TrEMBL record:
Record-listed E.C. numbers: 3.5.4.4
Superkingdom of this protein's organism: Bacteria
Domain Adenosine deaminase: 20-365
Organism expressing this protein natively: Microbacterium schleiferi
Cofactor: Zn(2+)
InterPro entries tied to this protein: A_deaminase_dom, Ado/ade_deaminase, Metal_Hydrolase
Gene Ontology MF term list: adenosine deaminase activity; metal ion binding
GO cellular component entries: cytosol
Family to which the UniProt record says this protein belongs: Belongs to the metallo-dependent hydrolases superfamily. Adenosine and AMP deaminases family.
Name the UniProt record assigns to this protein: adenosine deaminase
Enzyme class of the recorded protein, top EC level: hydrolase
Gene Ontology biological-process entries: adenosine catabolic process; hypoxanthine salvage; inosine biosynthetic process; nucleotide metabolic process
Keywords of the record: Hydrolase, Metal-binding, Nucleotide metabolism, Zinc
Amino acid sequence: MSIDQHGDHVLQGMSIRKLPKVSLHDHLDGGVRPATIVELADQVGLEVPEDTADDLADWIAERSDSGSLVEYLKTFDLTVGVMQTREGLTRVAREFVEDLAADGVIYGEVRWAPEQHLSGGLSLEEVVEAVQDGIEEGEDAAEQAGHDIRVGQLITAMRHTDRSLEIARLAVEWRERGAVGFDIAGPEDGFLPSRHREAFDYLASEFFPVTVHAGEAAGLDSIRSALLDGRALRLGHGVRIAEDLDVVSRAGDEVLVQFGDLARWVRDREIPLELSPSSNLQTGAISAWGEELADHPFDLLYQLGFSVTVNVDNRTMSRTSLTRELALLAETFEYDLDDLEVFQLNAAAGAFLPVEEREELIELIGEGFER
């Protein structure tokens, strides 16, 4: 089945695109429109490998589909390069929110690393302000178009640099002005969350929510460190928690599984897994299980009761949308609307919002799926 990034899919007579969705793992610099890259690159004098939006989209997709997280991350040199001015940051953030709204998202959390956007002379405070301006402009534009959406910032530190405490303080400073949580991203293997224990200690002292990239390019040790050192309330990807599951036997639809202590803790504590199916294939995160979506341990984790959520990770690099990811999962694992609703309810329950607002999200999702 071929489902394009901007297409729709009908399941049980319902448009997946029109269903209310929650997006928890969506990178700002991974969702820049190719046409915007071409235009902004011309303005700032950045050389791009292709002159048209379509050709550039092809170029990015080809290099993203490498099976290596390291190679996958190289495509961000281009998107980050056009996000070094106030105007560029605001525009990208505005369009990002508009694209979320067009995808049926009613609540989203956008993650990005302010420290990567300073080469144009802006300060950390100024880049966060520029992105927040864009988010609010996008929310207003969506409202005028008849779509209610709210988007919060996940202020992110790069795990291979030494600015995490500074970025953590920045996130807390913006707590009442758009920031809803903190993350660390970048090269995962060899850079355990424990390297940033001081930042995580500070965030814990401020009761500020944390999600941590773990269990993607690195395995169980990264997940363990995210939980113990990072006090992570969610796991960014976390797909390799399946390495702590031993499938003892299969008989038809019945699967007997032996849990490791870490997997049981994540399952029993209902720690949300921010799974991104297409991205997990591209980066080789599921290489231990296979190379096709049908090999992804998503369904195993779901059937075992893990709090699975569905995410795009990087819309541009994976040429995807939340609608497309849900459609692909439905096609591959024969999910119905009830399953898709569970994924959205899991995401709503894991959102970095006050409980009253999470309950409102859950009600909106229920109403939307019932219609």
